[in-house]
Design goal:
Distance between the termini: 24 Å
Number of strands: 2
Largest sheet: 2 strands, antiparallel
Order of helices and strands: HEEHH
Strand content: 5-15%
Radius of gyration: 14 Å
Number of helices: 3
Shape: elongated
Helix content: 55-70%
Strand order of the largest sheet: 1-2
Number of domains: 1
Structural class: mainly alpha
């Protein structure tokens, strides 16, 4: 199954933004009330969003670019 143009059009921005976040080392710290704060890697967040927006095939493609 090949990705269609909509999927590729959404995968490119998610991949670019995820790469920039990963390369810059951006992390969001979420404070919790009784536990230490949780650090969320924003590059991994882009991977999750790409998978949700376009489906598993594009999520795998974006993830393969971010894991390296």
């Amino acid at each position: 199954m090949l990705p269609n143009t909509r999927q590729v059009g959404l995968a490119v921005p998610f991949g670019v933004v995820g790469f920039v976040f990963k390369a810059a080392g951006l992390v969001a710290s979420v404070p919790l009330s009784r536990t230490p704060p949780i650090d969320i890697d924003l590059g991994a967040l882009m991977l999750c969003l790409a998978g949700m927006a376009t489906g598993p095939i594009i999520g795998i493609i974006v993830g393969a670019r971010l894991i390296r």
